[in-house]
Structure formats: structure tokens, C-alpha cells
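Schema walk-through. Below, the input block comes first and the output block second. Nothing else is stored per chain. Lengths vary across the set, and this one has 145 residues.
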Amino acid sequence: MTPISFWCKARLRLSPEEIGDQILDVSHWTDFKGYGPLPGIKAAEFEIRTPEVVGSRIRVRNTDGSSHVEEIVEWQLDKMIRLHMSEFSPPLSRLATGFDETWEFELRDADTLVTRRFELHTRPVLWIISFMLKRAIQRHLNHLK
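--- output ---
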């Protein structure tokens, strides 16, 4: 099945290195508040933290009690960061097999144009959730400004 894909963009007053630092500082992950019935993040902690960053795994607990794992699969701060989300707890485990998130960076004067792309590998019912996730991602990007 073709994944559900969407993207959100924002111009941030952060460098790609600063954005990478925020991703690695899991205390910032609770800034993700969700949207509508889509939960925010309650806590995040490293299960595995590799010296080269790639292969690091972060266990995420959401405000509704659900959880998942995010693995860093690419780390090129001059261009992009890619994460793979999996090991969803129910009910999402019944709907999705994995999500891929890519942060793309483009320097613009003193700012960075950030594009966050998502591919949701799922069954058709998750189209509704993808709409709320897109709103939550845009709100989170705006919070980073």
C-alpha cells in the first residue's frame, strides 16, 4: 500500500545544529502537544544512544498512555535528519506499521527553512489521523520559532 505522505514547512531562527541539539535533548520532546484527539508527548528517553547518533533509539510515552519507539536512521546536519517510528502500542499498532519522518534543512540568511516530511505506513483509516498529525507538526514548528 502506498504510504500517506505530507509535509510542513517553517522558517526558524535556529541553525540545523541547534535543531539537532533539540532533537537529542529529549526534555524538549514534551513541547509536542498533539492536536485534537492526537496525543502529545508526556516523556521521552533514550533506550540506546550511539556515539555516531545513527542507530539511537528513543522510547516515547504519550499523554494518552500510548507509546512508540523512534530510531534515528540518518543524521546529516548540513542537509537532513531521518527518524523511523515503530513499536506502537494499541490502538495505533492495529492501524500502522511505521512512520518515517525527515527533517530537511535549507539555510536562508540567518534562518533555516525546515521541511518536515512524513510517510505513514498504514491502513486507509489512518488518513483521518494524518490530517491531525499534520496540524500538530505545523503547530510544533511554529512553537520552535
